[in-house]
Amino acid sequence: MSETRDEDQNIEKVGGIPVRSAVEEFSSDEMLVCNHCGRKVPPNRLDCLYCGKRIELADDQKERVRPIVRQPEDGERGYSIVAFPSDVTSVESLVNVVAECSRLDLETAQKLIAGTSAVPFARGGDREVVESAARAFDGVGANTRVFSDEKFLVGEPQIRIKGIFEFDDGQIALIRFGTDELIVLGEEEVVMIVEGSSFETRLESKVKHKRKGTEKLLDESETAQEDMVLDLYFADSPVGCRIVPTGFDFSYLEDRKAISTTENMALTKDFLTRRFPNAVMDDGYRTLRSAISEIWGYGTSETTAAMKHRGFGSFERKKVFTRNNHEQFLRYSRLQWFWRHGETGAKDETQE
Questions:
Q1: What is the pLDDT of residue 6?
Q2: How far apart are CA 161 and CA 308, in angstroms?
């Protein structure tokens, strides 16, 4: 993205939007005063720089504080600020505030705000800081809500579908994976379809360890797989049905069935949108994935196992490192349902 500079005001811009300086400077009026030690601290934090205690804010101060939202520690409960960007009334101001509070580069903040899907603007482990940042976003034209991690029900997987059955009268049913149960659907029952992708990369390495503590890489390989995913939602639950190409029977397509699974998934998407004409279609994930990953990162795991002994004190060890977007896309997909159909749940999302 090109950079320009406003000649009259000498303000650096990216994509026509003013960029804040990397080093924030605040006027005396903007500074906060710690209630415990009496020192002045910048308005981008709620804890005192000097004594470390939480600053007690007056009502007028709450409206202008823009705290930095820090990612939760491992095992710590997180809170996400989510928003539907099409409701934004002041894009330029919001880009700068989101970039400032979430520590995003300007281009990433722009990408999140420019989309037409519900997205996360920040995620942190300190609920008070998160809610304060949400007020700052709303103060410059956003319409945000705060969701705790539990809200997304990541421990409850989508209902996996293995096929589609068409009745003689034209009605269809989804065939549930594992049980062959039929979920018979009327035209109005599917309220939303979310298109996305599921990917996983796998890095395997074999390392030889020697007696003196040295090691030698013997072999290394990397594989990657990415598949199109379709999530179907009903009006009464954030747990939807999921279609993935692995294990899915495309025989319902009959003579329209293509050779590649990619084509068959595209045909399935078209089939479902025709059968459920009133369902909202959201296909923004692929475009937004890189930006969303700055807020909701990828899942990773690493396993190590001894393989073979090579003489006294020498052995080979196999390491496997995986990286995937499974939880990230599940959050994104369910967020679209919450924003459009989960009004009852969305009003009390920060309650414990």
A1: 46
A2: 41
